[in-house]
Amino acid sequence: MLKGILGALALASTALVPLTAVAQDYPSRPVTLIVPAPPGGGTDVFARQIAEAVEPILKQKVIVDNRAGGGGTVGTTMISAAKPDGYTLGFVWNSPLTTSPHSLTVAYTPDSYASVMSIGYSSYVLCTAPDFPAATGKELIDAVKAAPGKYTYGNDGLGGTMQLAAERIFTKVGAKVRPVPFGGAGETARNFLGGHVTFYGGSLPPILPHAAAGKAKCLLLTSAARNPALPQAAGLDDIGLGSEETVLWWGLIAPARTPPEVLAKLEKAFMEAASTPAFKATMEKQGATQRVLGAKDTGALIRKELAALGEVAKAIGIERKAQ
Amino acid sequence: MDSLGYLMDGFAVAFTARNLLLCFVGCLWGTAVGVLPGLGPLAGMALLLPLTFKLDPAGAVIMLAGIFNGAMYGGSTTSILMRIPGEAASVVTCIDGYEMAKRGRAGAALTLSAVGSFVGGTISIVGLMAVGPLLADAMLSVGPAAEFVLMLTALLVVSVVSSSPPVKTLAMIVLGLALGTVGMDQLTAWPRFTFGSLDLTDGLNFVALSIGLFGVSEILLNLDEATPAVPKAPRLREMLPTAQEIREAAPAVLRGSGVGFLFGLVPGVSHIISTFVSYAIEKKISKTPEKFGHGAVAGVAGPETANNATTGASMIPLLVLGIPAIPATAILLSALLIHGVQPGPLLMSEHPQVFWGLIASLYLGNAILVILNLPLVSIFVSLLRTPMGVLAPLVLVVCLIGVYSLKASPLDLAILVAAGVGGYLLRKFSYDVAPLLLAFVLGDRMELSFRRALTISDGDWWVFVQGPAARVFLVVLALIGGLQLAAMLLGWRRTGAAAP
Amino acid sequence: MAGLSLPRWAGDAAVGVALSGAGVALAILAWPIPRGSVGNPGPGFMPFVLGLALVGLGLACAVRALREHDGAAVALASRKTAVCLLTLLAAALAFIPLGFVPTVAVMLSILFAVLAEKPWWRAVLYGCGASLALDAVFERVLGLGLPAGIWPF
Predict the structure, then answer these.
(1) For residues C23 and C47, what is the distance between their CA atoms, to the nearest angstrom?
(2) Model confidence over B270-303: pLDDT tens digits?
(3) Is the dihedral of CA A207, A210, A211, A215 positive or negative?
């Protein structure tokens, strides 16, 4: 009996070892990386690649755990609610952090998770049929401004990042293009190629081969910079709207109260893993651009984007529903 | 012919020891996940996707395509033996496949499914090579408006052949459509009937619903009977189909190949539509339509063939356009993208070894699967020797595992039980649950394409009769509607004449 | 055998009435969702219309059942069905919090005892054995990841 109590006490005391000591030998067991997207998508691919790249640096296994649902909000909720011991992290894309909160009632805010780092971004692009009367990004904007409400553009879903990215530009220049939401960029591409919508709006990979084959004319990116894969497409800098950039980006988050030492260690390790030329090549194969940011920059990016997209959402009448 | 030479090169790629092994492993794993209720091709491919990152692109797609095909072969097993749809594509097989099993013809049903799958799979790959690019262009002309008309046609076709009275079938269709509206509306981001649950924003889980409505309800219904009519294990020499069964199955297999191939181009819901349509056609043209729902051979062979023909056809949009039309080919796409291979109009010229290697491996996979599945038939059928009181509890556990393994969601488990009770009550009073399930799958997309079409046309309803694709489907719709009306009038006259 | 027995037409009609009830509930729940216009239907349009359709069709089913008064009786919820259903429900609720092995061991023990009419000690033996075997197959061989719950291994 006494032995039992002593044993329990000993167990309890090991559990109470100061966090710093724990942080020093962190990680002492495998780390779970929650990915709020289904296997196979861009986010999942990057998560698995970076998990593999970071294993030798952390000297621990990193296990990817896909928790899809609710446009990423289900998995993100799990990450922010996880035990803040550094053994449950989340690899997310920006939509559940900065877009979904405007249309869904989510149980997290930028204060419920710690941003650790981000790896880079991928732009969205607007493309037209080859016979559309515009040859540059500037002419595209002029064309849609001249005919309010005439054209349609396919996007990844109403209130989604792609739509907000496009609307951010359209509101700024005072144009009205009717959004037609589809289930994803592939479906948008199919409907665009079939001539059912005027513009393709979505990520680069699905449309690249068709642009190369001359079936699509890609004119405007939603990133400030241009993209080497689509040399004819203007960046937002080219039309003087660089500050309205909205892109798809990926990063690492952890539950809010994770010890700072652990966060610092993770930031360093993941930034190292994401900065290699090999990882750069991986990203480029998926049409993305490497841009490694640390915890501070990533956190600032999230808050700024959340506020900006909130305004766009409000301007086009998207609001959080009661149910 | 040029492509024949390429195909030979493709076989050279597929026949290397490593790729052969990968194809075999894929087929084996695919069969396993296909047999397990809940896990379908999608989950099976997703689970092994990370493994393929380390392979070369040809090896990666060969293995994944093997899983895809294998899951489609395996899906029919539990449908026939236990009335549990392995995946959406084998919902129809539950109807007559299980009835065949009850009559001691489980072995024949499984054998015919495997052989039909082989024929359908092979024919669809030939079709893919021959007219793939042509069909891809045709597919592009199907916009939201035509998609809506097409799905409406599919629902009508099914209501025509359902076993329950028309008013009950209609009620089940509407109930299915209504259940399909749960979840976040894609066009306005409005969370409908989610009661604040993020889990529900994606809608009710199809797998949980289908296993509950078909499998769990079947067990509950059986338990009410003093001497339940459960599947009988056939004796060894009754394992193979009889000459009569083969005669009935052969034309159905050929028709199923055609139907499956054509409907493989329907985005998103191709497998379930093609199987239902094939069943409907078989029942409609059968000389003995009264046999359907009571173990009609054609009602198993046709849809099972269509199912695998659809798999081959669903590769067309992926390979020719670089656009996955169904979730399973989306996984193939990402496996290719991670290696920097972009499918699309340039795939054949830029990566011939991937393209032709994949085509060759599809042929090969079909051959491996039919060889793998035929011996498995006797093993699976021997499961039926287990007494009902022991088998049923084990089946229920496997259902729980299957549903849990999808998302680890407690809600899905609750849906499984609720659907089981619902299915039990509905079927007790002869409400057919198959139309409900089809409507549930189609409902979401139907509503979206309906509203998308109106958004594109800016509120003009004429959009539904414009464009070549919509017109084609409208003619079919009118034809079926007219035939049905005529049949009904004739039927009335006949019953009127028969009445004293 | 305990359980209910009721005329077929009554059950059939009851299902019809239940369907219309579901339709009413659907229409009421859908009412606050914007329905938009004919040319531009909103998210509430389809659910509302479907709700109304279900009310009508459910009633039509009920009326049809009343007219087909054939006097046949239907047995409902026999003792075995009830036990099976309640056990399944409990297992579904306990599956994640308690974990796979304990939940399934209890579930199978009960079902083997009632459905297969085994003596209780054999049912428990088989139930525990089967739950461990299934755990081994799905967790270890197929690597599916079953809920651990309170089961320590």
Answers:
(1) 9
(2) 898 999 999 998 998 888 888 998 999 999 999 9
(3) negative
CA separation, residue B31 to residues B69, B118, B285, C78, C136 (Å): 8, 14, 32, 36, 19
SS3 category, B495: helix
Q: What is the DSSP letter of B320?
A: I
Residue A44 contacts B, CB cutoff 8 Å = yes
Give every CB contact of residue B427 below 8 A, 6+ residues apart in sequence: B217, B221, B433
If you search the block for the tokens 């969702």, which residue do you land on?
A: C33
Strand-pairing partners, residue A252, are A91, A117
Q: Which of A74, A180, A213 minimises the CB distance to B198?
A: A74
> Residue A250: in which H helix or E strand, if any?
strand A248-255
- Measured distance CA(A180)–CA(B246) in Å, rounded: 49
- Going along chain A from its start, the domains and CATH numbers come out as 31-121+247-315 (3.40.190.150), 124-244 (3.40.190.10)
Chain B residues close to A108, C-beta within 8 Å:
none
Q: Which of A:132-191 have CB within 8 Å of B?
A: 149, 152, 157-159, 178-183, 186-187, 189-191
**CB A186 to CB B195 under 8 A?**
no
Interchain CB contacts (distance < 8 Å): A and B = 154
Q: Could you give the 3-state DSSP secondary structure of residue C66?
A: helix
Please state, as a whole number, how many other Cβ atoms lie within 10 Å of the Cβ of residue C35.
17
**Cβ of A63 under 8 Å from any chain B Cβ?**
no
End-to-end CA distance of chain C: 41
pLDDT (mean) for B44-63: 85
**Maximum separation of any 2 CA atoms in chain C, in Å:** 67
Distance between CA atoms of residues B263 and A93, nearest Å: 35
Greatest Cα-to-Cα distance within chain A, rounded to the nearest angstrom: 87
Cα A49 to Cα B3: distance, rounded to the nearest angstrom: 36
Express each pLDDT in A81-90 by its tens digit.
Answer: 888 989 999 9
Q: What is the pLDDT of residues A93-124, one digit of tens each?
A: 999 999 988 887 788 999 999 999 999 999 99
Q: Where are the domains of chain C?
A: 4-76, 79-141
β-strands A152-155, A199-203 pairing: parallel
Closest Cα in chain A, distance from residue B318 (Å): 10
Q: What is the ipTM of this complex?
A: 0.94
Give me B134's structure tokens: 């042509």
| Backbone angle region of A55, left / alpha / beta, with phi > 0 → left and psi within -120 to 50 → alpha | alpha
List pLDDT tens digits, range A263-295: 999 999 999 999 999 899 888 877 889 999 999
The Cα–Cα gap between B81 and B79 comes to 6
Q: Taking residues B310-321, what's their average pLDDT? A: 89
Q: How many angstroms separate the Cα of C75 from the Cα of each of A51, B163, B346, C27, C65?
A: 57, 22, 63, 33, 17
> What stretches of chain A show up as alpha helix (H) in DSSP?
2-15, 19-24, 42-58, 73-81, 94, 137-146, 161-173, 185-193, 208-212, 260-274, 277-285, 295-315
CB C16 within 8 A of CB C62: yes
Interface contact flag, C74 B216, Cβ < 8 Å = no
As given in the structure block, the two tokens for residue C109 are 């023990």
Record: contact A45-B194, CB cut-off 8 A: no
